[in-house]
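Sanity check record (used in CI):
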Amino acid sequence: MEKVLVVSEKPSVGRDIARVLNCKTKGEGCLIGSKYIVTWAVGHLVTLWEPEEYNPIYKKWRFDTLPIIPEVMKIKPIEDTKKQFEILKKLMNREDISSLICATDAGREGELIFRYTYEAAGCNKPFNRLWISSMTDQAIKEGFESIKPGSEYDNLYYSAKCRSEADWLVGMNASRAYTLKYNVLLSVGRVQTPTLAIITERQKEIDNFVPKDYFEVISEFDGFKGTWFDKETKETKIMDIKKAQDISNKVKGNNGKVVSVENNKKKQVPPLLYDLTELQRDCNKKFGFSAQKTLDIIQNLYEKRKMVTYPRTDSRYLSHDMVNKVKNTIAKLNMGPYKEFSAKLLSMKKLPFTKRIIDDSKVTDHHAIIPTDVKPNIESLTKDEFKAYDLIVKRFMCVFYPNYEYTITKITSEVCGEQFLTRGKTILKLGWMEFYKSDSKAKKEDEEDELPKLKKNDEVEIKETEVQQKKTKPPSTYNEASLLSAMENAGRFVEDEELREQLKEGGIGTPATRAAIIERLISVGYIKRKGKTLQPTDKGMKLIEIVPPELKSPETTGRWEKGLTSIAKGKMASQRFMQSIQRYVRYIIQESAKVNRAIVFEAGNKNKLNPNKKTVEALGKCPLCQSGDILENSKAYYCTNWKAGCKFTSWKNSLAAYSIEINNELMKTLLKERILNNVFGVKPNTKEKTVYTLKMNNYGAILIKEQ
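Expected output for DNA topoisomerase:
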């Protein structure tokens, strides 16, 4: 009997799909049912060829062999996950498999994972596409009931393929060119370098900033305070201390009158629902989470907990067909910490679905991130998972609440010809701010002194005055929240107004990749975390000095991201995009030949500069890049090519729960043999002694299995 092969992106997702499809029989790397066989990748199984695979001449880095632009870019199985690839290949080409279903993540990278695997396996059987936005059983069932032809997603694949090949061409060629010209390992990328440029440009502004002293005159009236301001410019800053003191002395102890009282009624509409970038910003501002940590948490809430919808979205709206699902979700949230809010919404005759909530034209591949319509198991969440989930739930419900309304009162007083401004705030209706009234920032904004009831021409007396000395402040150092905003709004760095409008859709990277870009810049030593801020290193500052404007321009990258989006929408041919990338690569190689002799990078191997320094022992060759050596530091074992992007890392404390010490001898053995039997340890839960087998993958992760 013929069967349909379902290919998911991860084992955990595959098991969920298999349960819904009633595939219970275990096979090699798959679960089998009467109609379906469900298998899975483990992320990317296939990658692009290395340069030397096209021609051995490229094995050695030489400037005269650049640029490397293959006529056709080829793919191959990733060595570290080749076993799983072979399982998929065998399944795809089985005679009893009549067709396939692509069930990888419903996005650009998920599409690439399936298509590359399908192509590398030499499969030509028809396939359909499962496209879902949540991992609940009901969503999976509904997805299989409305399965779509794979051809409908061809443009998404072309976009993903262009992204993959463009990053390879730019990164490979630019990194080799600048490494060779400056004799130090330099990682240059299509997306990472413009992101670095944003950070370094801000650092230059901070470094060049010269603080200036200024003064403000604060007056104390009966029951309220006022700040002096210039009648013409409305400026409160006084640059001359003598002038400030003269004003202070002039008005102290004198009477004046109220010149005007203004009461301006204000309102704030509820915020939009979350997309990934906005959620990452809020998690960073409120909890200090990195963008990557937030993504990992939300991905877990989506895949394993089934409590939120698809996270890697750039939309902040819902589609009109979700109205009933939204009502069901609110009903499921009528519990625990959300009962008060959900009960109020459920009591409404009709939920206020405005254009700020439902807008089909602004829903792309996925709608905004919202809770799923299953009863949430809040008790099962970790502390950090609850923090993120709580934000999503509150945002989801607050959009249906009324506006936040308040009055801003401005009192202008005049004493001896000098004017003073007093501001106050009166809340009229909390509205959607009910959800955030306990937030420290919201509390601070609303805790303003209550102002006395004054009217025009009332007499006032200044009892005391104070001259406050202050300093002008430089621009703020980027943190992850502000950097994510800068990456999302790359167009604001562009001077050309027309192009700036065009780039509104073309930020740097995508919601799914921005976290990885930040982590990449840290791993190659171009930026560092300092507290909650992100600061460029000396190496990062120098790299931006030597690359041409086009390589560090947010404008260039924004145009490319806009182009990739156009390809996905079927509005641009992929060939046209790749031709522009190839022209760009040739230009980069030409520009890299113009070496800036004023820029000197610190030598990669410091021991060559200091022959008396003790030589660090290399424990073996790196299994990932196969050219670097593995060294140790206080916390981990790492590759000497880490600055060029090699991600091999083996943490010394990774097996601490098993009472296994990772030392140099153990590492040498694993690097040589890749597997080590008869290692004594304990069971983490019971502390009972047992024996393990250790196995190390190419990235340095040590897998442990009880013998």
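The chain has five domains: 3-146, 163-207+482-592, 213-269+404-471, 276-398, 630-706. If this sentence no longer matches the regenerated tokens, the check is flagged for review.
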